[in-house]
Amino acid sequence: MNIPKLIPVGDPSAETFTINLGPQHPATHGVLRVKLEMDGEFIVNAQPVPGYIHRMHEKMGENRTYAQYLPNTSRIDYLSAMTYTHAFVGAVEKAAKIEVPLRAEYIRVITSELNRISSHLVGWGAWIMDLGGFTPILYAFDDREKILDLLEAITGSRLTYCYYRFGGVCDDVDQDFIDGSKAFVPYMRKRMKMYKKLVTGNIIFRKRVEGIGPISAEMCRKYGACGPVLRGSGVNYDVRKAEPYSIYNQFDFDIPVYNECDSLARYLVRMDEIEQSLRIIEQACAKIPEGPFQGKVPRVLKLPVGDTCFATECGRGRLLIRITSDGKEEAYRIRLRTPCFTNLSLFEEASQGMMLADAISLMASLDLVIPDIDR
Amino acid sequence: MSSSIEQLAKEFEPLAVKEMVQLPPALVPKPAPAPKPAAAPAAPSVVGLDLASSRSVAVPAGPSAAPAAPAPAPKPAAAKPAPAPVAPPPPLPKPVQIWKFEDKGLHLEVTVEPAHVVAAAEIMDRAGYAIDAVTGMDWPTQGLLEVIYDFLHFQTGERVAYRARIARNDPKIATISKVFPGADWHERETHDFFGIDFIGHRDLSPFMLPDDATYHPLLKDFKA
After folding, report:
1. What is the DSSP string of B135-173?
2. Considering only CB atoms, which chain B residues are within 8 Å of A236?
3. One-character DSSP codes across B43-75
4. How would you class B136 by CB atoms within 10 Å of its CB: exposed for 0-12, middle for 13-18, buried for 19 or more?
5. Which of residues 311-340 of A touch B (CB under 8 A)?
6. B154 Cβ partners below 8 Å, 6+ apart?
7. Interface contact A51-B130, CB threshold 8 A
8. Burial class of residue B95 (count of CB atoms within 10 Å of its CB; 0-12, 13-18, 19+)
9. Residue A290 carries which DSSP code?
10. Which residues between 338 and 367 in chain A have a beta carbon less than 8 angstroms from any beta carbon of chain B?
11. Tens of pLDDT along B11-55?
């Protein structure tokens, strides 16, 4: 789809000036710096400068065993840590051909989807706060707290979970968790109705997002954009459907897709995804079988020689982990291809000619988590 | 799925390397040879563990024994009794290799001549693929650096990767960021971590690393 630029770039011969957005700025959602070349209120060029909290997770993967590396993966995108550990345990299980009991898969799906909702809630609240509305983030954190309480009861942590293990999960869930998750579904549905009234239909919000920050499907392809950004551009791609992992092919859920390519489309995708996650949780809680929660795993885990790729759909999009093993206890190389990295890489092109305040809206619609970019 | 992948494999054929180098074991994605290479003596105990006893609970999606297997793969059961003391080198992988997705997370893997990476990217572009990632890999004992390009298709879900191997002492390769602008950042990061010089890249200044960084941390001989 070819989208015309809504606002023309100013006369290039005119005098421009350079300003910094960040690295310490609330609207960058973390330690991200954007070098802005401005022509008045219009952006001539916006160059993100990441790397302020680079920790070299990929190198750490070469120096520790697979089990030791597992907690690292939840620190990459701290808002959807479950899905990140899921990608890593999935990659190792695929390479070592470890079987996971069905109950563990159900637990993984429930916790991953709960985590996805909490991740979207933060993105949602923070976005609207960027646009000047303070109330929604308080509501979002209130609801998110319910999820965190549920997850804390079974994992022991509130943010950087290390709950999944190779071959299963580290501890079984109790009936309280299942009941709590079941009860959360109708509660969240009621809240979503309220959110719609509060924000989605709000005229000020609509003016700030409708038609703002167009990202075409072609641009997504060229940059490898993923997640809600991609689905807001009319591309029906979700790793859970395209490369079904775990037991996602056993659930009935839809991929929300919007063709408008603007910030509002990305917003609506996220809101609809919360509903789809609720559907998955509902089905999983109804069907979760009894049985073991941990499969058999060798005491010393060594992967067979070669490459293995494994992708999961995280809150922000496609996370690909490529493990190269040379048969030792540590990986020879671990490659983390993270969603925010590719989503932010198109910001420079997408933001050209926008007004600065709109670029903030565009950046918030990418739902960035900076440690995910820097790794 | 398979027809388009086979067609792509044909298109890649002229770009692929004529001869595969004898590569380190980790590089050889072996199609399960009967004798295990000596480098992985513990592999059988890992792979073969409890797989023979059939479990009622099957894990992920897809049939585990799909029909369209290109390589004959008599997997763990056959490998178990034969940990040869001096294993013969595993057979060289094919330059154009079609994989079963369930095994590798890939449908097609190609090793191309370093001179042809841009042409390969153009093939991917024409076929409607999206860029997934670009990354590097260091093989100091072989004196090689490897650049790996990952692609995916939004509509079919197919995954293709191609690799190019370049000399470690003169790591230069053309940029594909003119074809896929998304490669810009990936290549810049790869330059950071491996010191690979992407010819034609607009800006290879440090990206993730500090501005004054002169080191490349993902090289195996890097000392902090």
Report:
1. EEEEEGGGTEEEEEEEEE-TTT--EEEEEEEEESSS-EE
2. 154-155
3. HHHHHTTTTSS--S---SSS-SS-S--SS----
4. buried
5. 311, 318, 320, 322, 324-327, 332-333, 335, 337
6. A220, A221, A230, A235, A236, A237, A242, B130
7. no
8. buried
9. P
10. 341-342, 345-346, 349
11. 777 777 777 765 555 444 445 555 444 444 444 444 433 433 433
| Mean pLDDT on B149-168 | 88
Q: CA B163 to CA B108: how far, in whole Å?
A: 11
Which residues are CB-neighbours of A95 under 8 A, at least 6 positions away? A303, A304, A306, A308, A323, A325
B132 touches chain A (CB under 8 A): yes
Best of A56, A97, A108, A220 to substitute, by most chain B Cβ atoms within 10 angstroms, is A97
| Residue B193 φ/ψ, nearest 5 degrees | -85, -25
Nearest partner of B168 among B140, B136, B197, judged by Cα: B140
Q: Which of A152, A154, A151, A162 is nearest to A75 (CA)?
A: A162
Distances (CA, A) of A370 to A263, A312, B217: 20, 19, 21
- Contact B50/A at CB under 8 A: yes
**CA count, 13 A, side-chain hemisphere, B13:** 7
Quick one: which of A109, A186, A191 has its CA closest to A143?
Answer: A191
How far apart, in whole angstroms, are the C-alpha atoms of residue A13 and residue A8? 14
pTM for the model: 0.82
How confident is the model over A224-239, as pLDDT tens digits? 898 899 998 888 898 8
- Residue owning tokens 């069905």: A102
Neighbours of A45 (CB within 10 A): 17
Q: Judging by beta carbons within 10 Å of its beta carbon (0-12, 13-18, 19+), is residue B132 exposed, middle or buried?
A: buried
Whether B23 and chain A come into contact, CB under 8 Å, resolves to no
The complex's ipTM works out to 0.85
Check residue B42 and report its DSSP letter: T
Other C-beta atoms within 10 Å of A112: how many?
A: 28
Mutate one of B36, B46, B55, B110 to test the A interface: name it (highest A CB count within 10 A).
Answer: B46
Q: Are A345 and B182 in contact (CB under 8 A)?
A: yes
Which of B104, B133, B154 lies closest to A237 in CB terms? B154
